Fold:
Amino acid sequence: MDNLMTARDEALARLEQFAPMAGRHYAARRNDDLGPGHHDHVSCLSRYVRHRVVTETEILSEVLKHHSPEAAEKFIAEVFWRGYFKGWLEMRPFAWNNLTLHGEWTKTDVFDGLRVQQGSLGMACMDDWQAELLETGYLHNHARMWFASIWIFTLGLPWQAGARLFMEHLKDGDPASNSLSWRWVAGIHTIGKHYLARAENIMRCTAGRVVVREYLNEGADALPCADHPAPRRIQNHTAMPKKGGLLVLHDDDLDGDHYWQKLLAPKKTMVVNLAPHRAKKMSEHVTNFVGALCDEAATSHGGQQLGPNPDEVVLAFKETGASHVVVPHAPVGPASTWLEGLKTSLKAHGIAHEQPMRRYDELVWPHAKKGFFPVKKQIPSILEELGLV
Structure:
């Protein structure tokens, strides 16, 4: 990050620069991956919105200043895909809890026991994409799909190991978007509907930059999958907590837009960085990036950064003299696991706590019971409910 700009400054500047291109230009060029340093046809905001340094609502608002909902339909849908995946996983946490090859879930590392080859994968395109991922913490979405498809169907590697590789190295690594995207490619998200990378498509969408000369399995079947369990109900957090509590932010929601500050007027704000616990061996560029975001959020909100130990929150609560603790809803993943431990500790100390949910999530997530279409159908009414149209 530029020393003279905060991450939020950078995100808002990029949003302002990209928004005029979010209509026909994005629709026509969004699948083009022109390589590292040349991802100008997409927003590149995912690393910020994943931590809510900038929010979905802010992105939609800025884009709709330049385009009608119809003109920016493709980009708006892409924003809502993130919310769809979040809601789907919220109602079906099994897809995160059972992610390891052994079907085991641990509090600190869902990928414990997996190993992934860090050297050559035997295909030039895969080595190039892996190098970009490891060096920059980013891959174009189309490259992620190609990579996952080749990993699963041509190289025959476990999709769980590929999801782990991405989670360890992506600055926008998100339990829902990452794990469910890998499941979608494999054909076990929408059961039987998988994605096959094709040499012609790769060459065309990279403007000839990537030519696959090795064998590519373009006729594989989807991976076998049992029916998904019925979705569970999303916990209702409609009622807003009273003001003046201790606000504890986590790296799923760093409150870049001061949404919680305005609603809750907290007595003090603390920030907990859980990025080191997303996977077994998190890359340094991810932990450094998220650590800097958390430091920035703590400074912006006049607070400080805490470790994940619940005792640190209890101590902060006692020192501030707040009446209760408020933690923004933690979606399924490391944050929700951490929050369960925190709730147990707070209860043991007789400390009241609340978990409010953002209005955007309340409006989007309940429609994610099956495929994306029911969410897409609700986009016009959600935009209206949010006051964006």
Notes: The beta strands are 246-250, 268-272, 304-306, 325-326, 353-354. Residues 20 and 66 are 6 Å apart (CA to CA). DSSP finds 17 helices and five strands in the chain.
